[in-house]
Design goal:
This protein is of the alpha+beta class. The protein contains 15 helices and 16 strands. The protein folds into three domains: 296 residues, no CATH class; 120 residues, no CATH class; 58 residues, Arc Repressor Mutant, subunit A. Bound molecules: adenosine-5'-diphosphate (ADP) and magnesium ion (MG). Adenosine-5'-diphosphate (ADP) binds next to strand 2, strand 10 and strand 11.
Length: 499
């Protein structure tokens, strides 16, 4: 349970949130036509006769879209319905040539599932929490009206008409903006792992309808909800909830009532405003689409879908902790997105190979490098860094030199800086730029001897029991060697000489 509360004049309120996420299915063609789904085409360049609803055109289901929805359902451990059916949701709008959207109201393809959001103290999520998912159904997207192209006319772009969407409907299980944000991020991660949606919220591949209600703390009844449509970033989802919950509390405390309605989020002001009062299902005259047979999935199809699933975020995170010995924080960060873990796993493999040790023995070093050192260097360089030089081979070579004690952590950063700017070979940079630690024990022994001779009084005190002086000797030796001595070797030489 989150502790998120809205403080009102009459006491504390809690917030209840359910999300309906629309995710564009990754597929070359649309749900019922062969037109392309590629983003960024000229308006109306990707509209087939089916999409334009020409008389006599018939929809043909795209098996790939069905497969992606099933794989997504499996990834949230949901029931897969072997029998599902398409329904028409009838309404008139200029962005919908058919006059109805083909969707699945009564028999969705995916039933009850769940999603884990992980404890994240900093984000305000004190405990792991399971969020229920009621269903996933597949449906068609609509087109886009453009009101800013002409002074007196509106234009319509039908490229998106008929593109396959998955609608992923959560239970009203979230109780704070932070939980809703974590839910969207986790769902996005799962979709990207599975490859069923690219999760690109800026391009509209994923958007959320945000249902919010409030109730007095301890009230067993759910309050009346509003639904804020088409929110297209995690930050906006959180802002919309915050604003909407506060607004509802103010209305209720002023003696008003919440009407169930559809609202719009304005990213400019961070506020929501009323769009229309909630239409009921009967207004849409839903009925089974007579042009389409029910979808029937056989066992082989389901088995193939299951076999094609990759290791999913929770399993990967667990494996990183248990088998690679990573901290929970590192494991969570590294598994948060496909690109992040892919880069990490490539670098881990290259580093382990280079050093000649099993992956679990170098994983923490590689994780810290990947999450903090490397991004830090990259950020500090800004435009001077050429990301193309950030290859796994170059980074593995640096980690290799560091693991062998040839370079220090500081030198690793300096070398990486030069590599990012120039693309030079890390070992060559270390050699020619003098970025190497002295590990030669002869040179170190000579330096230690000089330090001990110059500080005979302190050596006496040390031998008399003042062990804190050890750090002083290390410091003096490092200084004598211009900071380039391998601290491990310095330590062991000093220990040996001091007895
Ligand atoms: P509809 O069929 O009218 O869209 P649903 O029952 O399918 O309504 O719910 C839609 C979404 O609203 C779901 O994500 C659900 O979790 C959420 N929801 C339902 N009731 C509430 C409530 N009282 N407060 C917040 N969210 C709610
Ligand atoms: Mg709904």
């Amino acid at each position: 349970m989150s502790n998120y509360r809205i403080h009102g004049a009459t006491g504390d309120w809690e917030v209840v949130i359910g999300l309906e996420v629309h995710a564009q299915v990754t597929s070359k063609a649309k749900l019922f036509s062969g037109a392309s789904t590629e983003f960024g085409a000229e308006p109306n360049a990707q509209v087939s006769l089916v999409d334009a609803a020409m008389p006599g055109m018939l929809p043909v289901p795209n098996a790939e879209c069905v497969r992606q929805a099933v794989r997504t359902g499996m990834a949230i451990e949901a029931e897969i319905n072997k029998w599902s059916r398409f329904d028409r949701k009838n309404y008139f709008y200029a962005d919908l040539p058919q006059g109805y959207q083909i969707s699945q109201l009564y028999h969705p393809i995916v039933g009850e599932g769940k999603l884990l959001i992980e404890a994240d103290e900093k984000a305000g999520i004190p405990h792991d929490k399971i969020i229920g998912i009621e269903r996933i159904h597949i449906e068609q997207d609509a087109g886009k009206l453009m009101h800013d192209q002409h002074p007196t006319m509106s234009y319509v772009d039908l490229n998106r008409v008929g593109v396959a969407l998955m609608e992923i409907v959560s239970r009203p299980d979230m109780t704070s903006p932070a939980e809703a944000g974590a839910y969207v991020r986790k769902l996005r991660a799962i979709l990207r792992y599975v490859g069923s949606c690219d999760g690109n919220m800026e391009e509209g591949s994923m958007r959320a309808d945000v249902n919010v209600s409030v109730r007095k703390v301890g009230d067993p009844e759910l309050g009346t909800r509003t639904e804020t449509k088409n929110v297209n970033s995690v930050r906006f989802v959180m802002a919309a909830i915050e604003h909407e919950a506060r607004r509802q509390v103010d209305v209720l405390e002023d003696g008003g009532t919440i009407v169930q309605e559809t609202r719009l989020f304005d990213p400019g002001t961070g506020t929501t405003r009323s769009m229309r009062s909630k239409e009921d299902a009967h207004d849409y005259r839903y009925f089974p689409d007579p042009d389409l047979l029910p979808l029937e999935l056989d066992d082989q199809f389901l088995a193939d879908c299951r076999a094609s699933l990759p290791e999913l975020p929770d399993a990967k995170r667990k494996r990183y902790i248990e088998e690679l010995g990573l901290s929970e924080y590192n494991a969570r960060e590294l598994t948060a997105d496909v690109e992040v873990f892919a880069r990490f796993e490539t670098l881990l493999a290259a580093t382990a190979r280079g050093i000649g040790k099993p992956e679990n023995e170098v994983a923490t070093q590689v994780a810290n490098w990947s999450l903090s050192v490397a991004p830090g260097v990259m950020k500090a360089l800004g435009d001077e860094a050429n990301p193309a030089h950030a290859t796994a081979e170059a980074q593995a070579a640096i980690l290799d030199m560091q693991a062998k004690g040839e370079i220090s952590g500081g030198q690793a950063k300096e070398i990486y800086e030069i590599v990012l700017k120039t693309g030079r070979d890390p070992a060559e940079v270390a050699d020619t730029e003098g970025l190497k630690q002295q590990s030669d024990s002869g040179a170190i022994e000579a330096a230690v001897d000089a330090v001990l001779a110059a500080n005979a009084d302190k050596v006496e005190q040390y031998r008399g029991g003042k062990e804190a002086l050890f750090g002083f000797f290390v410091g003096q030796t490092m200084k004598a060697m211009q900071g380039k001595a391998n601290p491990g070797v310095v330590n062991s030489v000093l220990k040996a000489k001091l007895g």
